[in-house]
Amino acid sequence: MIVMDNEAEPETAHRPHRKPLALVNARLVDPASGLDAFGGLLIANGAIADLGMHITEGSIEGAESLDCGGRTVAPGLIDMMVFCGEPGHEHRETLATASRAAAAGGVTTICCMPNTDPVIDDVALVDFVLRRARDTALVHVHPMAAMTRDLMGEDMAELGLLRDAGAIAFTNGKTSVANAKLMRNVLSYAKDYGALIVHHLEDADLAQDGVMNEGEVATRLGLRGIPTEAETMMLDRDIRLVELTGGRYHAAQISCRASLEVIQAAKARGLPVTCGVSINHLTLNENDIGSYRTFFKMTPPLRSEEDRQAMVEGVASGDIDVIVSAHDPRGAEGKRRPFAEANDGAVGLETMLGAGLRLFHNGEITLHRLLNALSARPAELLGLAGGRLVKGAPADLALIDLEMPWTVAREDLRSKSKNTPFDEARFEGRALVTFVAGRPVYHYG
């Protein structure tokens, strides 16, 4: 049995474990191949060396072993939307604290959004994030660069140079590019580089100063609403531009049935279009705002229960490709305000898996579909080697107890900010051990 520290030291986080390690007596679940079988998995030199029923206690000479007790070994989760404060807002979150939160949630790769100060729209800033992550983070970190300078939506950034520097995709963060000609140019240039464009969907003029979903609940609370059309109209425009340019396009978050129908139609026409949904929009709805609870203020806003159910159906059918945490740390000074004045955003790296497993236990989404949207599909879209249980793949893994009950305690979150909508929520299932390059970077308990 291997003895693991509760959290690995940052400077050793990306070094392969020194001795081969056999995870035995495990349920191996690989959403990419459909594998679901009991057996073992051998880790050597930071990669998966072998897996199958033949790997048992003592079967591999010279290897340490970890008895998984029949629990699930799956690819580590890959989160395509993480807002991190570094550089510029380290009081809200750093790459180090975000990586510890990720590891505790079974997440082995995070994609950082460019909403920093300064904005990640320069080669030097891409390099800074990569170097800082290498020195301080426990998990893999890939920066998404700004598609427009300073995220202003006016001038296109140097996409080719940013991609060469290590940007994994391009986005305008939490704002949409309103200028259709500029968006066309972005998609055209991105196609030349084979780059993925990840776009936030909101028509700012239609949304105006809305703070929650438009409808009966907003009217009752006396709050200005944002119609679903603000999202769907922007998505429909973007799909037409994709058809015009052929560029690879990913809708960062959709939140309503009408947007799902637009995505389904685009995919039916064979367009290079994919989409994501946040774990919040899969498990919460506008009614959770209750008596102006600001931890439930998000962008896009929480929608109706009918729209939430549509999002679940989209993941279950595979029409929605990925699930993201939309991790967005906010301090008390930004959240403890009247609802209309409060910052939007919620932390989610540590709760994404537990919240997602609610859908599995309720019978709404199969385990394979859930894990596919959390690991295999984002790896495929981003061109990453992880997200799979196959020989030679990186040993970025999560050992998950699907049945373990636990209660979210805000004060125990590893994120610097504590703005979780799941405070005191009861979950069933969590990551017990998280491996990055074969090394345990988190151990529960």
TrEMBL record:
GO terms for biological process: purine nucleobase catabolic process; pyrimidine nucleotide biosynthetic process. Gene3D superfamilies: Metal-dependent hydrolases, Urease, subunit C, domain 1. InterPro entries: DHOase, DHOase/Allantoinase_Hydrolase, DHOase_cat, Metal-dep_hydrolase_composite, Metal_Hydrolase. One of its GO terms (molecular function) is metal ion binding. Residues 70-257 form the Dihydroorotase catalytic domain. One of its GO terms (cellular component) is cytoplasm. Keywords: Hydrolase, Pyrimidine biosynthesis. Pfam families: DHOase (PF12890). This is Dihydroorotase. It comes from Methyloceanibacter caenitepidi. The lineage of its organism: Bacteria, Pseudomonadati, Pseudomonadota, Alphaproteobacteria, Hyphomicrobiales.
